[in-house]
Amino acid sequence: MTPFQHIHRPSFFAPAGAVTKPVTAVTPADLEGGTLPPDAADWVKASGFKADAGSVLVVPGEGGSISRVLFGLGSDRAESPFLTGRLAKLLPPGDWSIDVQGIAADHLALGFGLGSYSFAKYKSEKPRDARLAVSGDADAVDIERQLAGVLLARDLINTPTNDMGPDNLEATFRALGEHYGALVTSIVGDDLLEKNFPLIHTVGRASAVAPRLLEMRWGTKGNPRVTLVGKGVCFDTGGLDIKTATGMALMKKDMGGAANVMGLALMIMDAGLPVDLTVLVPAVENSISSNAFRPGDIYKSRKGITVQIDNTDAEGRLVLADALAYADETPPDLLIDMATLTGAARVALGPELAPFFTDDEDLAGKLSLAAKEAADPVWRMPLWMGYDKDLRTRAADITNSPSGGMAGSINAALFLKRFVTASPSWIHFDIYGWNPSEKPHAPVGGEAFAIRALYRVIRDMAQAGK
Length: 466
Fold this sequence. Notes:
Elements: E1 21-26, H1 28-32, H2 38-47, E2 56-60, E3 66-72, H3 85-90, E4 94-98, H4 105-115, E5 130-132, H5 140-158, H6 166-179, E6 183-188, H7 191-194, H8 198-204, E7 212-219, E8 225-230, E9 232-236, H9 245-248, H10 256-271, E10 276-286, E11 298-300, E12 306-308, H11 316-329, E13 334-339, H12 343-349, E14 354-358, H13 361-374, E15 378-380, E16 398-399, H14 408-417, E17 426-430, E18 434-435, E19 445-446, H15 451-464
């Protein structure tokens, strides 16, 4: 089966058996050592090529042909292992091959595929004509699968809210499920109150597009149970505690948690992993209207915990609370939630590391190892129970926004922990969902965080049968 594609795009890879032209990887030491053929050495000298990391030099041949292409690795390979993403942007049209000692073949191919991405849905942009041959040492099918998951997440986040509101997100969610034969259902609008999802309804009720809880079930009962929960706030004005114009500029990405768990679900289903998978996405828009929820309001959650609203801009934890409580009622073996939740996480770790919280030491160790192997960086943050008291408030069980402004990401994680009491293994990701600056393998824009590492963890768990 071809991996699900939200926006159709041609393969970034040369077909099997294609005749390819080689790309020669070089370092500054190679240039200084005089190991290049004379024609290339002369052209390098004339062009001023220094083999800086990610640089490309096309060496001309006779009659306007290409004699060879040199690819600079730099001195310290600081941008490896996905430096080949630069090749996707700079190579002339054609089918190419490359081998770099010290970089795994799957990373070379994955880097090229990630770097080939561009969000061109709203542009008359021609597809890239350069393709890379995947080495026989790499699993081409699995690389395509991981790319499909990452690029789905990028596409969803990059799509503006006028085309990616709760209803549009549901349409893509359904299409993804149908592609893999999953059962997809949704609870929409006032039915959320009837089905006891009051916080999801509360956050989304002011929008012209009704709030909803999306649910996907796939796999075979009896296999290890995995539940993914993703924050699907398709736009966040901040509610009555309204954001500034600058603060709203990137709020189309506030459904980045949903985008990431959908990308991860794609990988799991496409691989046919022997798991019993559930995906939950509370999809809402945090808007302002006469019926918007207010600071000072108190609402009872699905779990029965009452929550005082001390900031309507701390809405993501509210919709996750109902979804997590629902997931926890039939405890899975592994419960994962992902959300673009707090600015505090970005202050702590910046935009490149995916912060995670868990009490499961074994899971934390396996994830850290998988992240290193996949070059998909994560960093564990503390579920410090000493701050749990900060959630208390006089009029309700807990507040959604403790005063003081300290430990914001930890407080948000502790808030969510109140709604997960039965599941033996729970992990919470407070991700950014965005690249603020261009990288060899990623343009500025929406980004997948930690899902390639999580895919490895779940694949190993499924193969072990637990």
